[in-house]
């Protein structure tokens, strides 16, 4: 998907690391209103 659609050649480990970094940044910036907090609450 990433390679074909976006021209990116990355391994799954890199995708996981980048995803975690994005989620943590969102959590730090938005706190209780972050996507992670909302998903964990089931909203």
Description:
By secondary structure, the chain is mainly α. The protein has a domain at 12-41. Helix content is 72%, strand content 0%. It is built from three helices and no strands. It has helices at 2-6, 12-30, 35-41. The longest helix is centred in the middle third of the chain and has 19 residues, at 12-30. The model has no long low-confidence stretch (mean pLDDT 91).
Topology overview:
Layout: H1 2-6, H2 12-30, H3 35-41
Helix proportion range: over 70%
Percent of residues in beta strands?
A: under 5%
Structural class: mainly alpha
Number of strands: 0
Main β sheet profile = none
- How far do the termini sit from each other? 28 Å
Highlighted features:
single chain; 43 residues; mainly alpha; 3 helices; 72% helix
Question: What's the quick description here?
Answer:
It is built from three helices and no strands. With 43 residues, the chain is mostly helical. It starts with a helix and ends with a helix.
């Amino acid at each position: 998907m990433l390679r074909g659609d976006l021209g990116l050649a990355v391994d799954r480990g890199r995708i996981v690391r980048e995803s975690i970094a994005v989620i943590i940044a969102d959590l730090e910036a938005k706190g209780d209103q972050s996507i992670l907090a909302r998903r964990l609450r089931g909203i």
